[in-house]
Amino acid sequence: MKISMKYGEKHFDLNFEHKNVKIISSLSSPKLKREEEILKYAIENPIDSPRLKDIVKPDEDVCIIVPDVTRLWQKPSVYLPYVIKELEEAGVKDDNIHFICALGTHRKQNEEEHKLIMGEDLFNRFEIIDHDCRDKDNLQYVGTTSFGTEVYVNKLALQCKHIILTGGIVFHDIAGFGGGRKAILPGISSYETVMQNHSLSLNPNGPGSNPKVRTALMDGNPFSEDMLEAAKFVNPSFLFNVILDSDGNFTAAVAGNYITAHRKGCEILKSIDSFNIKEKADVIIASAGGYPKDIDLYQASKALSNSVEAVREGGTIILVAQCIEGLGHKDMEHIFYNFKNNAEREKEVRREYTIAKFFAFVICEMAVKYNIILVSSMDQKALECCNIKITNNLEDAIYYAKDAIDNADLIYLMPTAGSTLPVQS
């Protein structure tokens, strides 16, 4: 069986023979509709909501929450004009439209990055403000969730009559799905609010990560439910979310009620990017999907989380992910290198939680349950601390896993592990 595994800007051609090997991949879209058709239909046919132009009155202030530069794959510069057109038809003046970039806890952005997010035309028409999660003077308390999270959000957003959420829906290894309520928390929330929410990813009743916090799960997932409660305090007027395939094409869009439209989008994503498997394999050979999905280990960890859904505990995972920028975050280095074992790592995550620390801890947890071989440009000793072997070519990785491959009853090949979720039926 021949298959291509993306690696950074390049790829490995794999010619793989085995008695029982299968491919896990997203369903190929039948015939893609034109992006204009997809976006126009969504904005004109909102779910459980009037059209945006019928919600907003001409003299009312509107705050549009947009993704930051790390989410450019969502193509906000393409879909935002459809939102603006609705507001124009409602008679809303440019001076009444405000853009806030949902940075969460990310760094501030420069003018060029704002232009990439908005597109040149909208950038020249409107001011875009970066949310600052540490600017206490511009944060306002709106309530405390049933999980105990004290929710502080951006004051400018609260000063507007209407808040519109935008973004993209993807599988998320902690929140279940991206999009929707995430534009509020972590998007425009305080640093303390984000950390309180994110700490729900740890097991409250014992060691390790919270088993209820996982990919494609929202109901019963405290991390996601806490975010939704935070969004309810703000009560957004409208949502516009998009879904793209692994090649960056729009496959669907949803608009309307910020809860039910988002859920519909999650259902659409599952129908496209989940793959039913009857049983778990002994070995999986997966690619994160190339650049930028494998720019660093922080990003490539999404592919690792998806891969473990298709391999039995004790099995072997070969992950192809260049990680040209290394681990991707100093907090990951801290967790990997400054602690002797996972118990000590967990203590540190609980002491001072960050999402990067948590991801590093989860990778270390996986390395106990699975034999992980990483095909990467990183130093081959970079992850010896958690028993992950690194090699810089796929051929060597297959050689290292020879015994596991020879004895395997079932092997999966997963070329788009960063965006495909295996689901056992």
Automatic annotation (TrEMBL):
Q: Which domain of life is it from?
A: Bacteria
Q: Can you provide one Gene Ontology molecular function annotated for this UniProt record? A: lactate racemase activity
Q: Which InterPro entries match?
A: LarA-like (IPR048068), LarA-like_C (IPR043166), LarA-like_N (IPR018657), LarA_C (IPR048520), Ni_dep_LarA (IPR047926)
* Record domain LarA-like N-terminal: where: 7-204
Q: Output the Gene3D superfamilies linked to this UniProt entry.
A: 3.40.50.11440, 3.90.226.30
Q: What positions does the domain Lactate racemase C-terminal occupy? A: 279-415
Q: What protein does this entry describe?
A: Uncharacterized protein
